[in-house]
Amino acid sequence: MIDFKKDVALVVSSCDKYEDAWYPYFELVKKYWPERPEKIFLITETKGYSHPGLNVISCKFGKEVTWSERLYKTLEKAGTKYIVFSLEDFFLLDYVKQDRIEKCIEWMEEDETIAECRLHSSEYEGLIESEKYAPFRIAESDTPYRLDTQVALWNREALMSFVDLSENPWQFEGDGTKRIKDTDKKFLWLYSEDPYKLEDKIFPYRIYQWFGHGIAWGHWLWENKKWFKQNGINGVKYYRLGVLSERTVKLRFKHLYLYNRGPKKWEKLIAPLWREIIRIRKIKSNIMVSGLKEGLRQSWKQK
Fold first, then answer.
1. What is the DSSP letter of 202?
2. Pick the residue with more confidence: 284 or 229?
3. Could you give the CA distance from residue 15 to residue 19 in angstroms, rounded to a whole number?
4. What does the DSSP assignment read for 145-160?
5. CB 165 within 8 A of CB 71
6. pLDDT tens readout for residues 194-243
7. 207, burial (CB in 10 Å: exposed 0-12, middle 13-18, buried 19+)
8. Which of helix, strand or coil describes residue 226?
9. CA–CA separation, 225 vs 203, rounded Å?
10. Is 191 helix (H, G, I), strand (E, B) or coil?
11. Which end of the chain is less packed: N or C, by CB atoms within 10 Å?
């Protein structure tokens, strides 16, 4: 019999640059996930962190260690049969549906070939319906990004077996999905016809930039401040990463991401200028967070 609090760990992947997200993330976990696991592992580079009322264990591995190696070593340290994986800016917007997570554990206990129950909803039509696992569906080998970094309940050892120690998170998702194509493990994804509907989500957060929550392109989005204040979260140093307004996000999509759909002539001229503005903002953010010398070094590496 699985004891959720003791046999499941929460693993939060982050880096030193986003330390300002840690306090609001864990405050929201404390409020909106009362049945959360006892052990919480925060993956960082060099900085430690503790949080009042939570058992947050900082896993510091240095800046030269790859993202995937930090993840692998943290999973080794966790030692629990299951883990819930999250990124540091997946800020809870409502209560976690604990009964649904525990149902996932029942399925995983009955069938040890289930590697993952993805708790963030998807509308992908290629998912295979299963009456037994509804509202989850089966993500087969041709599912794009079958390995991804959205919030999910994982069999810890299965996840470890999918990790290549040389990869960054984007390689983990892209190359990793190709690498596990022939695995006999099952992947269950929460399905919703409306992936934006917060009520359908088991771990209710938003990853879509146009809703204004979380961190995007290295900056805070505009809705965070209002949500944090509503939950009594104060003292966040927004100036260090900077805040993107709703208008700025719309302009990014208009001039960069929709660019591939057949731009107008003037959009071709604006796109390079917009990329230069983004580059300057990134340099400024790196300097604010890490100081002049280290900030410039990071900016050079990100070119």
1. S
2. 229
3. 7
4. TSS--SSEEEEHHHHH
5. no
6. 988 999 999 999 999 999 999 999 999 999 999 999 999 999 999 999 99
7. middle
8. helix
9. 20
10. strand
11. N
Q: Give the CA distances from residue 185 to residues 100, 138, 188, in Å, rounded to whole numbers and listed in that order.
A: 21, 11, 10
Q: Which residue has the tokens 């999918």?
A: 162
CA distances from 277 to 146, 154, 273, 282 (A): 34, 39, 6, 9
Query: Is the distance from CB of 136 to CB of 191 less than 8 angstroms?
Result: yes
- Please name the amino acid found at residue 257: Y
β-sheet bridge partners, residue 40:
10, 56
The rounded distance, in Å, linking the Cα atoms of 105 and 295 is 43
Two tokens, residue 255: 């001039």
Q: Distance of CA 272 to CAs 245, 258, 259, 260, 300, Å?
A: 20, 14, 11, 14, 19
Q: Look over the chain and give the mean of its residue pLDDT values, rounded to a whole number.
A: 90
Q: Could you tell me the CA-to-CA distances from 2 to 11, 104, 130 in Å, in that order?
A: 18, 12, 24
The number of helix segments (H) and strand segments (E) in the chain equals 11, 12
pLDDT of 259 higher than 50: no
Distances 258 to 32, 116, 246, 251, 262 between C-alpha atoms, Å: 36, 33, 17, 10, 8
Which residues, at least 6 apart from 299, have a Cβ–Cβ distance to it below 8 Å?
Answer: 282, 283, 286, 287
* 139, 188 Cβ separation under 8 angstroms: yes
Residue 219 CA to residue 78 CA, distance in Å, equals: 30
Residue 66's SS3 state is coil
Q: In what order do the strands lie in the sheet with 186-191?
A: 56-60, 39-44, 8-13, 82-87, 152-155, 114-122, 186-191, 136-138, 128-129
